[in-house]
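Notes, Module 5: Reading structure tokens.

Key idea: the token line is not a picture. It is a compressed description, and you learn to read it the same way you learned to read a sequence, by spotting repeated patterns. We will look at two proteins. The first is printed below with its tokens.
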Amino acid sequence: MFVFVCAGCGAELTTPLSQVALPVHTHQSYGNGVQLPVLMRAGTFAVDPEPWGGPWRMWDEAEPGEAEARGIYAPVHALSDATPGAVVIAPGDVRGTRLIPEKRGDACCGLDGADGPNMACEACDSPVATRVDDCSLWQAVRLGLDAVHRVPVGGIQPAPLSWTEPAETGEATPLFEPIATWGGRSGANHHWSWSPRWEAAAGHALAHLLVASEGQAVNVPEGVATAVFQRALDALLPAGAPKRRAVPAGPELPAPEAEADILFVPIHPRTGQTWTPEGPAASAHLVPLPLGVWLTLVSPPPYLPAPASGRMPGDVLRDDPLPLLPHGPFQADRRTFERTLVRLPAVRSPWLRTIIETLDHDTSPDLVQAVAR
């Protein structure tokens, strides 16, 4: 457990926090006018290893080899020159700070951090953090690496979780979620949608799936994986045999078949490490998924959110009238997909660079439509 204090005066700026893995959907921007919830769970923090926010430089302004040194292997619109290593926490875990009104930026519904740090230490007035809560962005506070110090809190430190514990006690991420929008002419409203966390996780995983495919068609298991991945894979990869097989693997599951080419595996929620198999499957390509998403993939809910006859099971939606389900097929988050793919060294392969260039020339938010054109 740690408390973060102001680097200038030593005043405490947070409650005691424990470190966890940075969520895959941290950099997601979802929809338009959508009110996303808090990014981090209360009492936790994560470190973002990459720069976030301005100042920005266009891609053609980068020095030769600079992008690759920063782990970016294909052209992007712009490079952030902000200081990496920000500490990301829930807004409710902040203490002893005040907002800086002149740093509101041009956000329409809240704060987007575009003008830099917008929170100051109450004790010494030094800028220490950036609050983000604008529409379509996950709500969070980012403590500047140079503005705070991490101080251990006394007491017994928890032992690192084994893989068995998260698999048994972790919470599955539902495929559908109620989405709230900010009030407009018609007022605030809610609607049911595919989960933004699932869409971001699918975009992240899809980039790894493409690399693992080595340019061949890929088949995923029937069920949730088919709805989430197959449509995009069929659009991005050539049809025909041979086809590579992708199957789930991880703690508490039987050992994967030796002929499985690709494995969907969980990310440890505390350490961020990817589960790795042993034995013949050790050579398979790994596709990482957040633990909650992986749990839903391997153990989907027994009932769909739909009416049921007879006695209603406990997890059937009971709203009356029933909430609307998503209108269209599942779409992996395109920005998360692109952000992940350009950070994988394999993207330098000509066939993957062609996919990136195709996406660069299309503004459609639908990944499948953009590639099909």
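Here is the second protein, with the sequence above and the tokens below, as before.
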Amino acid sequence: MNAPAKPSGTTYERAVHRLRRALGPVDVAGGRALTGGLYNCVHLFELADGRRLVLKSAPSAEAPALTHERQLLGTETIFHRLAATKGVSVPTVLHYEPAGPDDPGEWLLLDFLADSTWSEVGEDLPADGRPALRHRLGSALARTATATGTRFGYPQPVPGLQGDTWREAFTGMMHAVLKDASRFGSPLPAATDTLAALPDRFADALDEVSRPALVHFDAWEGNVVLTRDGDGGWGFGGLIDGERAFFGDPLAELVGLDPLGAAEDDPDLMAGYRSVTSDLPTTTPAARSRLALYRIYLALIMRVESIPRAYGPEHSTWLRSWSTERITQQLAVLDRLAAGQRLPSP
């Protein structure tokens, strides 16, 4: 039998060591780093027995990060385990290890959800295949939302990011990212006090959310797996990367899966969602207010995280420009709703 590998200075050898720590002295036939992630280090391993596994390693707990970005792999573990109980295709969690005195970063071992992500397939996906896939994505996210947490907010015990009501939790989440902006020196496109007051200003809309539903909040096409069907086309394979999940308003899912657009205007996606449940209003003033709040929140996250992530200047410049436009636009939407004005129908 092979002895467990000893950790070394390289990320690959450290990943092999963790793999064998979780599974014992397995034979590793091959492995490589996977690209595309912006936070964790990810390796794909092929074992001699044919299994393909993914090992995700987080940065050190001391690495710069936003307030909610603590124990993200613990959050991903919770998401995958809960979503699986609702019949959603997600990677199986094989082992999770939090950061500790002998290991500065948490890590997670999963089985490999095969084939490609939707964003990798890109233009190879025929246009006539997209509606059915969006329908399947909508139904998967609706089933995900049937999982219920014990409290609202992020599942990890970071002070201020949970609450007994959605208004309380979302207020803490919004205030945390605003404090992160100050901490990292990220200028904002609107006054901090204006942004911080939004949850109280639209408290009645937030208070309509009475159940802490499981929300992936990052189900864009890069986190949707496609698989080859028997005819050589593409089918829905499942969801990955649930590390941004929280317990809250299912409407927020529409914002996370389409950060740049308006997923509620996609008839195929919404038909898939409503094939599971019709309980997702999107056109009432309260629903539109919450969608605007979540769009502001996500734009703030994307804007502020560019500093600790040390994105390149071109991408950082684009993020600042885009988030300024997005936040300004959504604040105008909220002003119109607060004044009782009607918004154009989708």
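Summary for the second protein:
- The radius of gyration is 21 Å.
- DSSP finds 13 helices and twelve strands in the chain.
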